[in-house]
């Protein structure tokens, strides 16, 4: 029998620790798993060595992300050797992708649970902790369709001062981009009922949340069983009292339709003037090889459509450099696209080979040095663009939703503008408030200023 753990709450069924990597969808999975365990009486702890249940909630979007999981498993092995009763599970995208293969590299892992199997977590954990040997090395990677029907409002934890909430509206992805593992790890698209989403937003607004961000791998593919779309959801959300800021991410350009653009314009000014629209490459031939469903001109036409309706709109994007078919000329087209669009934010990635994807058949992987040289060139070009674009905020006042103290300088506060610019500033405030800040300085990545008294 194990001795009671010091400090354990009286009625707690056990203590769990969860480490999460990856995108907002992985964060949501962590919330679902925490919610499921907490409903079964588990309490969360901040370190693996204090826990009875250790969960690695993983990301496999690039090879490096996957390897991090195995190195963390290596670090956890001594804990498992010392306390074999600790239950160790691998969850999320690496679990979905690798399944039972994980046991051949790390046999001390107890179970593997995929992205749409989070509901079975407490039962599995209870069986393992009760010594049920038949549960050891369990693998559940079924891509269930009912994972979207989740009591989302019951799993949101109260965070003091939190003013922003993420609301998942669609899971999975029906696109078949040749570089991407997401369709394998997250299954096909399933959308939540719009009334259910709106009820959640109303209760968030009543609870003091001022900003909601709708989430999905391809959020603009949202369509519920009654045919209601993201455009319908934006218009309805803009009418809810108490909601001051609305965002959504991540959009696919192929589904950025005229009617969605109209709805976005109608939902202004509550809809924030920032859109993340991943382009991936500025070369039409690379886009065709990636099977993105648009070419350079088509993407630029969407940008024009958006800016015609919302001239103030700021844009962000994702870019992959070093795709197997990418030539120097293709890469230069990506550089010129950055200039032509004038993005405020670019997330750039060196192409990473993913198992089971079509890109594997399109040509040999480019040398790593070439990929990283292109990545560095792209980042230099984009840094200069961002520096220029951020300079135009100097002297202006911006509205900042305060997120908390600046992590690099706790004497300052940090928050975001509707345009998704980070602003650091001095003054007397608190997390969750909206402040008017006059911008005095700008770098490529943030703005700095002071609260305007009495604004
Ligand atoms: N579903 C979203 C989309 O397609 O726009 C975002 C998914 S992913 C979490 C975020 C970004 O990772 C992608 O937009 C892409 O730029 C990058 N990515 C995906 N697969 C990759 C790969 N094999 N190598 C490098 N970057 C990749």
Q: What would you call the quaternary organization? A: single chain
Widest β-sheet, arrangement of strands: 2-1-3-4-5-6
Helix content: 25-40%
The chain-level mean pLDDT equals 92
- Unreliable runs: 1-10
Descriptive overview:
There is one protein chain. By secondary structure, the chain is of the alpha/beta class. The chain is 34% helix and 22% strand. The protein contains 14 helices and 19 strands. Strands 2-1-3-4-5-6 form a six-stranded parallel β-sheet, with helices on both faces. A hairpin with a 2-residue loop joins β15 and β16. α13 runs parallel beside α14. The structure holds S-adenosylmethionine. The site of S-adenosylmethionine has 19 residues, from β13. S-adenosylmethionine binds next to β13.
Briefly characterize the structure:
The protein has 455 residues and is of the alpha/beta class. It contains 14 helices and 19 strands. Helix 9 (230-238) packs parallel to helix 10, helix 10 packs parallel to helix 12 (296-309) and helix 13 (328-341) packs parallel to helix 14 (368-391).
Key words describing this protein structure:
disordered N terminus, 19 strands, alpha/beta, 22% strand, 14 helices, 455 residues, binds S-adenosylmethionine
